[in-house]
Write a structure and sequence with these properties.
With 604 residues, the chain is an alpha+beta fold. The chain folds into three domains: 22-347, Glycosidases (TIM Barrel), CATH 3.20.20; 366-376 and 512-599, Jelly Rolls (Sandwich); 382-500, Jelly Rolls, CATH 2.60.120.260. It is built from eleven helices and 34 strands. It is globular and about 80 Å long.
Length: 604
């Protein structure tokens, strides 16, 4: 009997392996996509593997399938895969993009791959690696030789992961996107062609597509001959007519149909109208138009991966940590009312059976955790770097976190202090006393320094980077102080700089050996412990604190800020453990340790 069972398992495994290696063709007809020679309507849901704990990849893919999707669209974030020049990671945790694609295939889903190099996505620097910003005069998203050398290195390495997973090789990838919404940024057509040629040189033989707004000038600048036209979004017949007039010989589709929208700090949660979404999707289904929900599940901007928007040189709108996006599948993987509406709608038009909705992920809440103030940011003993003028973080190979600048005041010692420019949130100290804070947005970068009796007062400026701009014309966005500091018009010289990246490695290695040397009232760390009998997803409630960062068992959950709207930070079950757990909070302004707890949802 055991031999028979083993034989059955072996035969089943072989059959699955043969099935997984079945090769398919995917081609561009004049108006339709053709899968193995037959018209195929793409109904795609976008999920970003970097925003979802790898333990939940399969669940989220199954959720998309149970809403009626037959395809998963996935961004690859270049800066998530290459931390420094030539240092790639395609194996660790949620960086294993090939594994994500294989899970899609195991779940019977096709894949649209969106590898950039630029992606936008409300992700830090639009996916580009911030190490590029160390080059003073770098030009991005064009044929600048230094930029293209880095792009070539990235595409050459990523191709090794994805070439075996093309549908023509037995994998699930149907198409590869070239860049992203380029017509909203530039018009370097040779650049776009060079990207496609790099993929072709690396044995990518499936069709390509581009994505742009439904405007002739955007399509003219952003599309390339022979590539399918993605519309962001293709909402009605007039949008598709624009694409058809521009190129009537390739199919067009809605490459980003928006069921939700992004949220910045200080805004209300974005909640787009569901009726408008229903009308749009009904049109797409009735007319057999292919489309992709951007996003079907957003996930989380863990750590410092959230990006920012800017509409002018002095505006700055950083994105919240949650990428819930008001998507059909919420941040913790639960179906929303929007999900059920879309599932019901799609089921009326497709000829395949939509599976049952997967069981939900377990959630828990945690009772009040007693916190203790343990040490201060200024307790750290860190190396100092001298420079005549302040330099941004990227000059020191730091991409995120904080940076501290110090100088002695000679000449002017009080009056109008101006930071040119604070990227992005600065705290000003004089002789160790907190004076004021400066937020980059709207260009109000001045602080009034009071007179003191100290002969040469010490000025300190602590700057937090809150995400590199990820869209449009102001993406060259270095962090820290990007130019100079003046006092009553006098340029201040001779600075000492300390690097405070605040990443998980820094936090693990830099706890002060003898804390409480500093007498600062703000910039405090708070620690707490809590015990669990069982694990589950939860949200750490930071509504009693002001502005800072939360770490659970060494994992960086991301930023919180009491200007809202986000007051709770998502903590997946995989970052918790039965028994004792540790939480560490850094807060810029909180003076008193207050208890915190956790809730089961982002908002109640």
């Amino acid at each position: 009997m055991k031999k028979a069972i083993l034989l059955f398992i072996t035969i089943s495994s072989l059959l699955l392996s043969v099935s997984a290696q079945t090769k398919h063709t995917f081609k561009l007809g004049q108006t339709q996509f053709l899968l193995d020679g037959k018209p195929f309507q793409i109904i795609s849901g976008e999920i970003h593997p970097a925003r979802v704990p790898q333990e939940y990849w399969r669940h989220r893919i199954q959720m998309a399938k149970a809403m009626g999707c037959n395809t998963i669209a996935a961004y690859v974030f270049w800066n998530h895969q290459e931390s420094s020049p030539g240092v790639f990671d395609f194996k660790t945790g949620n960086k294993n993009i090939a594994r994500f694609i294989r899970i899609c295939q195991e779940e019977g889903m096709w894949v649209l791959l969106r590898p950039g190099p630029y992606v936008c996505a409300e992700w830090d620097f639009g996916g580009l690696p911030p190490y590029l910003l160390k080059i003073p005069d770098i030009k991005i998203r064009c044929t600048d030789a230094r930029y293209m050398a880095a792009v070539s290195r990235y595409i050459n390495r990523l191709a090794r992961e994805i070439v075996p997973l093309q549908c023509i090789n037995g994998g699930p990838i149907l198409m590869v996107q070239v860049e992203n919404e380029y017509g909203s940024f530039g018009n370097d057509k040779p650049y776009m062609e060079s990207l496609r040629n790099l993929w072709i040189k690396n044995e990518v033989k499936i069709p390509f597509y581009t994505s742009d707004g439904a405007a002739t000038y955007m399509l003219d600048a952003g599309s390339i001959p022979g590539a399918a036209i993605g519309l962001d979004s293709g909402s009605d017949s007039s949008d598709f007519a624009v694409a058809h007039r521009y190129n009537p010989n390739v199919p067009s589709f809605s490459s980003e149909t928006y069921p939700g929208w992004l949220t910045h700090w200080g805004e209300k949660w974005q909640r787009p109208d569901t009726n408008a979404l229903k009308k749009e999707v009904t049109y797409l289904l009735q007319n057999k138009k292919s489309f992709n929900f951007y996003v079907i599940h957003g996930g989380t901007n863990f750590a410092f991966t959230a990006g920012a928007n800017s509409s002018s040189p002095t505006s700055f709108q950083p994105d919240v940590t949650s990428y819930d996006y008001d998507a059909p599948i919420n941040e913790q993987g639960e179906p929303t009312a929007k999900y059920f509406m879309l599932r019901n709608l799609i089921s009326k038009f497709v000829d395949y059976k939509i599976p049952e909705i997967p069981a939900p992920i377990k959630t828990i809440s945690v009772a009040a955790i007693q916190m203790k103030k343990t040490y201060n940011l200024f307790d750290f003993q860190l190396p100092q770097y001298h420079s005549p003028q302040p330099k941004p973080m990227e000059a020191y190979d730091q991409n995120q976190g904080m940076i501290l600048y110090k100088t002695k005041l000679i000449g002017h010692k009080s009056g109008r202090l101006k930071i040119w420019e604070p990227h992005d949130f600065a705290l000003v100290f004089l002789n160790g006393k907190f004076i004021d804070s400066v937020f980059r947005d709207k260009g109000n970068w001045e602080v009034k320094l009071p007179a003191t009796e100290v002969p040469n007062p010490e000025l300190e400026i602590l700057v937090e980077g809150m995400g590199h701009i990820n869209f449009a014309q102001f993406m060259i966005d270095r962090k820290g102080i990007t130019d100079r500091v003046t006092l009553n018009g006098m340029t201040l010289m001779n600075w000492q700089t300390e690097l405070i990246p605040m990443d998980e490695k820094f936090i693990a290695l830099n706890k002060p050996a003898m804390p409480k040397k500093s007498e600062r009232e703000i910039c405090n760390f708070f620690e707490g412990n809590f015990s669990l009998n069982e694990t589950g997803d939860t949200y750490i409630d930071m509504s009693q604190y002001q502005k800072g960062i939360v770490y659970v068992n060494g994992h960086n959950l991301g930023r919180y800020w009491n200007i809202g709207p986000q007051q709770r930070l998502y903590c997946p079950a995989s970052w918790l453990k039965k028994g004792e757990n540790k939480i560490l909070i850094f807060d810029f302004f909180q003076k008193e340790a207050l208890p915190i707890g956790s809730k089961e949802h982002l908002t109640d």
